[in-house]
Design a protein that fits this description.
Elements: H1 2-7, H2 20-36, H3 39-42, H4 51-63, H5 65-83, H6 94-105, H7 108-117, H8 123-147, H9 155-160, H10 163-168, E1 172-174, E2 177-179, H11 182-202, H12 208-227, H13 232-240
Antiparallel strand pairs: 1-2
């Protein structure tokens, strides 16, 4: 984060006041604590319907070291993007495009993959972890907004146009038709859910309804993927209806 502040030309802190990087680090720390201890959002009083599914979702990201690494990195990527001016970018999609360019230009996904893999690690799996981190950081806010909509809008078309998403979902052709991987979209959905929860938490809107909407949106995404036979064009067509 200190490096991001320097690269972005952020002014230094005034005497006795925290720098922008320090503020971003504090914010990121609270989000990391949320990811490590998210129980309160699953333990709110109310209907018991879906409680088991929510508990399983919590265990999914806390007990999966791979998914948790991706989520923690996504927090750092988003914080670095905000320091480099992503939040100041105009239009709703501006921050997303800015952060996506920052990750690409600074080779952050490649560096993260190298760090995840280590000297003798699985380079392929590490690359997917890094891609999931970038996708969660870039798309978490829009996924949260999408979850509250009854009609998908252009979200899926925009999501599937992202090069990182295409690589993560292993787009490939067979008999002239482009497909994506079933297991990969399931993994991406698992990463997007907590990223979206963080988004609504930042906005001060985290409640039982928003939690339900986010997980139900993930269920709808996976159902749509299965219904269209995991065809890329099929998912985009759903977005254009």
């Amino acid at each position: 984060l200190e490096a991001a502040a320097v690269f972005s030309g952020s002014p230094g802190a005034e005497p006795g006041k925290p720098s922008r990087a320090e503020k971003a680090a504090r914010s990121a720390s609270s989000e990391i604590a949320f990811l490590l201890h998210p129980r309160r959002i699953f333990a709110e009083p109310g209907s018991r319907r879906g409680a088991r599914e929510r508990i399983e979702a919590e265990r999914d990201w806390r007990n999966s070291s791979s998914l948790l690494r991706s989520l923690l990195l996504s927090v750092a990527l988003r914080a670095a993007g905000s320091l480099a001016g992503a939040e100041a970018a105009e239009s709703p999609a501006g921050p997303r495009r800015h952060l996506s360019s920052l990750i690409k230009d600074w080779l952050l996904d490649r560096k993260a993959a190298e760090a995840f893999a280590g000297p003798a690690g699985d380079v392929g799996a590490a690359r997917i972890e890094a891609l999931l981190a970038a996708i969660a950081a870039v798309w978490g806010d829009e996924w949260a907004a999408e979850a509250s909509r009854a009609v998908p809008g252009a979200f899926l078309a925009n999501l599937f146009a992202d090069a990182a998403v295409a690589e993560c979902l292993a787009f490939h052709e067979h008999a002239g038709v482009s497909y994506f991987n079933k297991e990969r979209i399931e993994g991406m959905t698992r990463a997007l859910a907590p990223a979206a929860l963080l988004s609504v938490q930042r906005a001060g809107r985290l409640d039982r309804r928003s939690v339900r909407e986010i997980f139900e949106a993930g269920d709808r995404l996976l159902a749509a993927a299965e219904a269209c036979g995991y065809r890329v064009a099929g998912m985009i067509e759903r977005s254009e209806r």
